[in-house]
Amino acid sequence: MSTNMETAVEDTTSRPAPPLTRALRQAGYEIRSILGNGEQLMVSLALPLMAMIGLTWLDLLDGYAPSRIDAAAPGVLALCVVSVAFTGQGIQTGFDRQYGVLRSLATTPLGRGGLIAGKGLAVIAVLFVQVLVIGGVALAMGWHPVASGWPLAILVLLLGAVAFTSLGLLIAGTLRPQATLAITNLVWVLLAAVGGLLLPLSKIPGLVGTVATLLPSSALGEGLRGALIHGTIDPTSLLVLAAWAVLGTAAAVRWFHWD
Fold first, then answer.
1. Which long-range contacts (CB under 8 A, 24 or more apart) does 184-193 make?
2. Fewer Cβ close by (within 10 Å): the C or N end of the chain?
3. Angle 82-39-241 (CA atoms, 0-180°, nearest 5)?
4. How much is the pTM?
C-alpha cells in the first residue's frame, strides 16, 4: 500500500506543469533578469527619459500639441516599448542562445510557444513599470494626456509589445548574438529618429516618411499620440500594428532556433 502511494506521488510530481503555469514561471524569471540588469534598465528607462527631456528643450514638436511635453510623452512611451520588447529581449535572448541557456530550455516542456509567451508577459510587466515611471515624470513636467484616450493607448501598447517582442525574438533566434546586438541597436536608433516613434509622420518628409507609414514603429507612435493627445486613433494604426504582431509571432514560432 505504501509503495503504491509513493509511486502515485512520484507520477504526480513528474508531470509537467500546465502551459500557462510554465509561461508565468518563465515570465517571472525574465522580469527578474530585466530589472536586475543595469544595461537593460539603461535602455528601458534612462534613455527614454533623456529623449523626453531633450524633446521638451528642442522645437522639433512645436505646434503639434498644446505643449512640447504633450507631444513628446506619447512618443517616448512608444520608444519604451521598442526598448524593452525589441532591443532588450533581442539582445538578452541572443546571448542566452550563445551560452546554451536556450538549449537547456529546449529539453524542458516549455517549448517555443512557452518561451515566447513568457517573454511577452515579462515585457508587458516591465512596460507597466515604464509607464508608471515615464508617465510620472511627464506629469511632473506638465503633461496633460486625454483621460478618455487611455483605453485606446493601452490597446496600442499591448499590440506594440507583442509585435516588437516577436520581431526581437525572430532576430535573436536566427542570427548570431553579435549580429543581433548590432542590428537591434541600429534599428532602435533609426526607428527613434525617422521611424515615427518620437517624431510624428507629419514631421518626417519625403520618401522616408512614406516608407515609415508601413512600419510598426509609426503605427505605435501615431496610435499613442492620437489616443493621448486627441482621445481618438486612426484604425489604420491598429491594423498595421496587429498585422505586424500576427506575422512576427508566426515567424518567430516557425524559425526560432534554440542553438
1. 184/86, 184/87, 184/90, 184/91, 185/87, 187/86, 187/87, 188/43, 188/82, 188/83, 188/86, 188/87, 191/82, 191/215, 191/217, 192/51, 192/79, 192/82
2. N
3. 5
4. 0.89
